[in-house]
Amino acid sequence: MKHLKGIFLLSLGLSLSACTLNEDDPQTTLCQKLTTHLMNESETNINWGDASRVEKKKEHLLLTVNFEKTDAQGSIPMQATCLYPYHNEQQGEDYEFMPQEYLNIPESMTINGQAVRVGDLHTAIQKVTGQSVKDTFNEEHIKNKAKELEQNIQEGAKKLDESIQKGSEKLGESLEKLGEKLQDK
Q: Keywords on this record (predicted)?
């Protein structure tokens, strides 16, 4: 069970670090994705601004992300805050899979000063991170299928070349025999 949990955390960590919003900062990426999900907004309706990180050593990381929500009436400045707990080797077996100083999953969150209920946050985390893992798998699956298809095309082209070569040789032999028969007459 420990290994399954580790594999899940490793895949989760890899998928979060591979997100396109902030490739080098999985906490900011997840905070943005959670905000989008919890607000039931399309990513096209949100313009992300700056993010600030305040670390309280050996306690938590407070990440604040500024953004504007746009709609038909215009833009509304907003702010989301995610609190990421401190994580170290002494706190558990997962450290070997996620050796960052702070966890990549927030323990609490606010949007425009309103606390997000813990249950809602946990549900959003499951949906957002599950989608990230699914997207990562789908991307890898597509790349593997593309490589397989490319190999099949190359093998098919090679076989076609060989068939054309053999056909050309047989045609040449047939023409040669025909030429000999015509000369004999």
A: Coiled coil, Signal
